[in-house]
Amino acid sequence: MKNFMTLSKAECLEVSEQLQENAKGKYKDALLLADNGSYGSAIFNMILSMEEQMKAIIIFFDGNGFRFRQKVKGIKKLFTDHQLRYLLGFFLSVIDLVAPDLERKLDEFRTNPEKFLSVNPKDPAFQEMMRLWVVDKIKALAAKAEWFSSIKNIREEGIYVDVKGSFSSPMDKSKEEFEQVKKQVDGLRKIIDSLIVGELLPEDPLWGSIQGIKKQFIEEGWYEKLSKEVKKISTDDQYLPFKKITGGLIFMAEELSSEIPFNEERELNEG
User: Fold this and answer.
1) Taking the model in full, what pTM does it have?
2) Scanning 129, 177, 222, 263, which has its CA 20 to 30 A from the CA of 233?
3) CA–CA separation, 140 and 99 (whole Å)
4) Cβ distance 144 to 136 under 8 Å?
5) Closest CA to 137 of 15, 7, 252
6) Vertex 191, ends 174 and 231: CA angle to 5°?
7) Residue 109 and residue 38: Cα distance in Å, rounded?
8) How many H-runs (helices) and E-runs (strands) does the chain carry?
């Protein structure tokens, strides 16, 4: 029987396009619902849009010669289980966090390459700036992990009336809550839309890079490593992976934040 796991490469490209179109449709529905003040249903559709894009990206890559469905044990759950989609969304959101800064640095390099290349990586002021940048990004990533850990509840609260200690109704959802979800989804949409470009051909700029990455996945055992991670997160506690991620990131941020700044450390050593 035909399903996501049995699609051919050609069918993957077709289905990934359909998934993208459905994601765009759900996104537009969410905006219309929000305009009419139905923020609970808007939140639900916004999250559905994101979930469809998570399926689309895996199908798209397999359509371009990757072998996630054949090589990553447990990947089938991505098409039936929300948890794997949310984890994939979280890891893709890392790109959303650092991409703007990378783009700015590339612009600086194009504008003034001499100034860009003159930066001394051993300069204490530069090292301190980089430390603060890393701390800031780690904290932002921990906040994203915290948000993704609650996304299943956010999704269900958008459509169901429930009582879990307190009364919850989709009708009580606010514009602010919708905008928070939209902000997260918008960042992921930008990344996914830039990756899903149809069938990659030898004349495409990304062709060489993609071929190299495919080779690395095989030679460096990335499929096997992903299989182990998927197995780890296949747990009854749907929040456990995010709890571990959030805890680890917060610990890293606290450790880096408590370090003596490089310039102060130099002064102490010189004294």
Assistant:
1) 0.79
2) 177
3) 14
4) no
5) 252
6) 90
7) 46
8) 12, 2
Q: Please give the structure tokens belonging to residue 90.
A: 């979280």
Burial zone of 226 (CB within 10 Å; 0-12 exposed, 13-18 middle, 19+ buried): middle
Angle at 183 between CA 178 and CA 188, to 5 degrees: 125
> In this predicted model, which residue has the larger pLDDT, 117 or 148?
148
Contact 260, 142 (CB under 8 A): no
SS3 assignment, position 112? coil
pLDDT in tens, 205-241: 777 878 888 888 898 998 998 888 787 766 545 545 6
Alpha-carbon distance 30 to 39, whole Å? 8
Query: Whole-angstrom Cα distance, residue 183 to residue 189?
Result: 10
Q: How far is CA 259 from CA 47, 178, 241, 266, in A?
A: 39, 38, 28, 13
- Give the pair of three-digit tokens for residue 176: 């602010």
Torsion of Cα atoms, 68 then 69 then 73 then 79, to 10°: 110
